[in-house]
């Protein structure tokens, strides 16, 4: 393995960047191999950077990068001052970074005040996070411009999700650079990158019998050990290198052996003497032999894998000389490693298993007291750090059974992470807070705290994993129960809306309608005059929810009433301070109303509203809102058969959704982008995208508009000449519409079925197609869906024209075209007007032949008069 790594280093030095991922169980030697590489290449001109992931910070965004930057810059661990800004600027410049752009980002990451030297960051939290991810990768690449670089990522199985984004991006960028990345991780780590030629994966197996023997001999030094002792160590350790090393040391430090004539001999009968049965037992035995120094190891282990002399001194309440003597002895025994000199020294346990053993050796009551002491010291001496990293305080409060402040700190950590766009980290913090609450039956204000945690968790789950997950419903159901019990109206509103959204996205529209009606009833409750603004806010939310539900049920006029009512009542001031909203309310209302107006036959107004909604979303720089507005822009363009507009909006939505992990919008944008590709002739690519999008969308238990998405897939199959697949897709669309009550495109599904019959089944099924068109017209008229009505009327009029019934076709189509006061240049109206003209000319010729001459002019004039003042007359 070392030879392979050294070979990869030679490739990296030549500019062929390499990544080696070392998998293995605890104690197998992953970190030792990385250390060996550093030692063996010490003579080469190179730089190196090390990142250490930690189980305590697996939900803290950018944690390993923050710690490494602080170490590299020589910043005070807990009080970065303005004077640190110059050091940061120098470091960025040394890596050939853009100082003006990168310094504010890294300063914000490290909590370094910038004063007047840099303006405030004009970025949304999500944009700031993405900019930091990119800047960190570029910083590492910049460090390799002057000399080859080795980057070590230790214990990647504990990496936080946001830091993982940095690593994933680095994996892509490192290929043609003089960089070797060495990553260590346990088997549970799942790489998110695909197999690449520059990435090597190694699984470290346990040592062979011969290698175990060699390792025992090297730990023992120049003195030979009794063969039966070596044999027992070889068998008991089962090839785990750390166990081999620690058990050998434990035996050497015990009174089991005596030195005689340059070798070790047994002090008594070997079989009668105790030998640790496990690695943990061996580590415990070594700690026990530290005598009074064991106490300092236990305190350090309770603080963490890494601890400072300053923190240890504050927590231990022991004389300085006693602490320093213990640290020296632990370092000499190889249990800890020191960096720097007291009082500025940092200490790390050589292996996380040693820390675990020291921590586990404490009695439960003593562990609680130590964690409580650490929490107290953190809050008193390091308030800035606990404000910046509330999860650290939350951990020690949790371990000391201080449930109320622990849950409060987890809630704070979750909200902070969500505000930074780190939704996966937020979920981790909030879940830990819930676990504390649920385990603390006697906790004061327990129900209120659980309510706060569940509402925050529900929103974070929606942002990170989509609306369809069962955990979203579970959280908001419990939140609603608590909100009603506690008469907390804001939380009741949030819980009902969360539940409504869950059922709405699943297209359980009957339940969604019931919840939105409940929301309106709740909003209309009488309240004191001082709460009128709050009541208005509740009404805005209720009308919007009903309007959205009605739209997908195909009740377009009712939807228009409620959406317009919501917009009239709305005022941006009502939402001030509501930072937890996933989508800006104004943008949401404008997008939905724009979409609705198309169904009602107002395509030009619909497009204007949609474009304004997208502009408003982009001005707010809120990625989730922007993704929403772009997807709805693509929706509208598809309905208007604006293929290029659909492609462009969908492409932009795919980009931003991929960058931020918005699976809900990404899948929908993929479907629409795929449809546009099939319309532009890229059949295979387009169909592949649509299939992947539909499968991914429905896999999230999202069914809203799925009937429409399947109808788009059917159109693609029909264009590709695969009628059987098109029929199957339309059958699935109709089944979903009937199951869910999602009827907003029911008329279009019937129309497409009719078109497919005509195109692929011949004249024998004209009657069946005519029946499907008639059903489509009936649905469209019942829904007041003028645009669907027009489209179906075109299909039916063409069928009648081809069957020699041009007059009947004109009688159908002309009045429908006359209902439109806008949208003259949309494809549907253009087709309708061309068809009206053709039908009128056909009718004129027929009547001329029938009237035998002189009556023709009168007939033509009558037809012209009938169409006068309508779009058809303007041709």
Please tell me the overall pLDDT: 89
N-C termini distance: 78 Å
Tell me about the largest β-sheet: 5 strands, parallel
Q: β content, as a range?
A: 5-15%
Q: Kindly state the percentage of residues in helix.
A: 55-70%
If helices are DSSP runs of H or I spanning 4 or more residues, what is the number of helices?
40
Looking across the biggest beta sheet, what order are the strands in? 2-3-4-1-5
**SS class:** mainly alpha
Q: Which stretches are poorly predicted, pLDDT < 50 over at least 5 residues? A: 856-875
Instruction: Tell me the radius of gyration.
Output: 35 Å
Give the tally of β-strands: 10
Shape: elongated
Task: Write a concise keyword list for the protein shown above.
875 residues; mainly alpha; five-stranded parallel sheet; single chain; disordered C terminus
Task: Summarize this entry quickly.
This protein has 40 helices and ten strands.
Topology (SSEs and partners):
Layout: H1 2-13, E1 18-23, H2 30-40, E2 47-52, H3 63-73, H4 84-94, H5 99-110, H6 125-143, E3 149-154, H7 161-173, E4 179-185, E5 199-203, H8 209-220, H9 227-237, H10 241-253, E6 257-260, E7 263-266, H11 279-288, H12 294-303, E8 306-308, H13 309-316, H14 320-332, E9 336-339, E10 346-349, H15 352-360, H16 364-381, H17 383-388, H18 390-399, H19 403-419, H20 423-438, H21 446-465, H22 470-486, H23 489-505, H24 509-523, H25 532-553, H26 556-569, H27 585-599, H28 603-620, H29 623-639, H30 643-660, H31 663-679, H32 683-699, H33 706-719, H34 723-740, H35 746-761, H36 766-783, H37 786-802, H38 806-818, H39 827-851, H40 855-867
Parallel strand pairs: 1-4, 1-5, 2-3, 3-4
Antiparallel strand pairs: 6-7, 8-10, 9-10
């Amino acid at each position: 393995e070392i030879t392979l790594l050294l070979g990869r280093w030679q490739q990296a030095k030549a500019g062929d960047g390499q990544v080696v991922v070392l998998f293995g169980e605890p104690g197998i030697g992953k970190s030792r191999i990385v250390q060996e590489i550093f030692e063996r290449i010490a003579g080469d001109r190179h730089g190196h950077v090390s990142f250490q992931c930690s189980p305590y910070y697996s939900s803290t965004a950018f944690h390993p990068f923050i710690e490494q930057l602080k170490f590299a810059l020589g910043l005070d661990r807990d009080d970065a001052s303005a004077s640190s800004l110059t050091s940061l600027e120098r470091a960025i410049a040394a890596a050939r970074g853009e100082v003006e752009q990168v310094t504010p980002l890294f300063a914000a990451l490290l909590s370094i005040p910038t004063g007047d030297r840099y303006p405030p960051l004009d970025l949304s939290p999500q944009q700031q996070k993405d900019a930091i991810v990119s800047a960190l990768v570029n910083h590492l690449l910049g460090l390799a411009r002057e000399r080859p670089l080795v980057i070590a990522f230790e214990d990647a199985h504990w990496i936080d999700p946001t830091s993982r984004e940095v690593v994933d991006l680095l994996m892509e960028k490192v290929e043609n650079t003089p960089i070797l990345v060495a990553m260590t991780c346990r088997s549970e780590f799942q790489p998110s990158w695909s197999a690449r030629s520059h990435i090597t994966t190694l699984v470290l197996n346990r040592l062979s019998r011969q290698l175990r023997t060699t390792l025992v001999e090297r730990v023992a030094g120049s003195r030979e050990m009794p063969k039966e002792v070596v044999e027992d160590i070889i068998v008991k350790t089962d090839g785990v290198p750390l166990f081999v090393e620690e058990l050998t040391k434990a035996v050497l430090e015990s009174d089991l052996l005596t030195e005689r004539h340059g070798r070790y001999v047994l002090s008594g009968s070997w079989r009668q003497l105790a030998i640790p049965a496990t690695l943990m037992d061996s580590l415990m035995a070594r700690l026990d032999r530290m005598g009074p120094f064991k106490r300092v190891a236990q305190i350090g282990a309770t603080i963490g894998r890494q601890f400072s002399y300053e923190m240890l001194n504050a927590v231990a309440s022991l004389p300085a000389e006693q602490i320093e003597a213990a640290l020296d002895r632990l370092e000499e025994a190889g249990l800890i490693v020191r960096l720097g000199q007291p009082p500025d020294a940092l200490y790390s346990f050589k292996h996380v298993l040693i820390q675990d053993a020291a921590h586990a050796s404490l009695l439960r009551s003593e562990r609680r007291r130590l964690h409580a002491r650490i929490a107290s010291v953190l809050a008193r001496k390091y308030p800035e750090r606990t404000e910046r990293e509330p999860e650290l305080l939350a951990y020690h409060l949790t371990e000391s059974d201080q449930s109320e402040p622990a849950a409060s700190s987890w809630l704070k950590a979750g909200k902070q992470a969500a505000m930074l766009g780190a939704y996966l980290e937020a979920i981790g913090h909030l879940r830990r807070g819930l676990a504390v609450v649920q385990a603390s039956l006697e906790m004061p204000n327990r129900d209120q705290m659980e309510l706060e945690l569940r509402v925050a968790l529900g929103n974070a789950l929606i942002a990170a994993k989509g609306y369809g997950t069962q955990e979203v419903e579970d959280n908001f159901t419990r939140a609603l129960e608590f909100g009603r019990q506690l008469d907390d109206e804001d939380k009741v509103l949030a819980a009902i809306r969360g539940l409504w959204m869950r059922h709405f996205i699943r297209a359980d529209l009957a339940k969604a309608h019931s919840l939105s009606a409940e929301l309106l009833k709740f909003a209309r409750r009488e309240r004191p005059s001082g709460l009128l603004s709050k009541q208005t806010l509740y009404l805005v939310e209720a009308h919007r929810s009903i309007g959205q539900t009605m739209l997908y049920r195909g009740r377009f006029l009712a939807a228009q009433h409620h959406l317009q009512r919501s917009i009239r009542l709305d005022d941006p001031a009502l939402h001030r301070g509501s930072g937890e909203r996933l989508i800006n309310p104004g943008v949401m209302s404008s997008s939905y109303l724009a979409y609705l107006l198309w169904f009602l036959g107002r395509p030009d107004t619909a497009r204007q509203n949609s474009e304004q909604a997208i502009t408003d979303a982009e001005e707010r720089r809120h990625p989730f809102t922007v993704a929403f507005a772009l997807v709805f822009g693509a929706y509208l363009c598809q309905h208007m058969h604006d293929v290029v507009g659909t492609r462009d909006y969908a492409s932009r939505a795919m980009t931003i959704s991929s960058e931020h992990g918005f699976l809900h919008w990404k899948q929908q944008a993929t479907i629409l982008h795929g449809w546009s590709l099939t319309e532009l002739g890229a059949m295979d690519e387009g169909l592949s995208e649509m299939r992947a999008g539909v499968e991914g969308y429905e896999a999230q238990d999202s069914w809203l508009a799925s009937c429409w998405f399947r109808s788009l897939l059917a159109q693609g199959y029909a264009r590709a000449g695969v009628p059987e697949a098109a029929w199957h897709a339309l059958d699935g669309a109709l089944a979903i519409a009937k199951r869910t009550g999602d009827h907003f495109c029911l008329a279009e599904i019937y129309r497409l079925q009719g078109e497919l019959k005509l195109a692929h089944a011949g004249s024998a099924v004209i009657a069946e197609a005519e029946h499907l068109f008639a059903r489509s017209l009936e649905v469209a008229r019942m829904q007041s869906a003028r645009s669907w009505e027009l489209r179906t009327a075109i299909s039916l009029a063409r069928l009648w024209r081809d069957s020699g019934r041009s007059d009947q076709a004109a009688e159908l189509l002309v009045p429908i075209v006359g209902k439109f006061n806008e949208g003259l240049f949309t494809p549907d109206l253009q087709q309708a007007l061309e068809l009206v003209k053709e039908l009128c000319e056909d009718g004129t010729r027929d009547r001329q032949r029938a009237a035998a001459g002189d009556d023709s002019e009168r007939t033509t004039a009558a037809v012209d008069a009938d169409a006068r003042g309508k779009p058809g007359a303007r041709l």
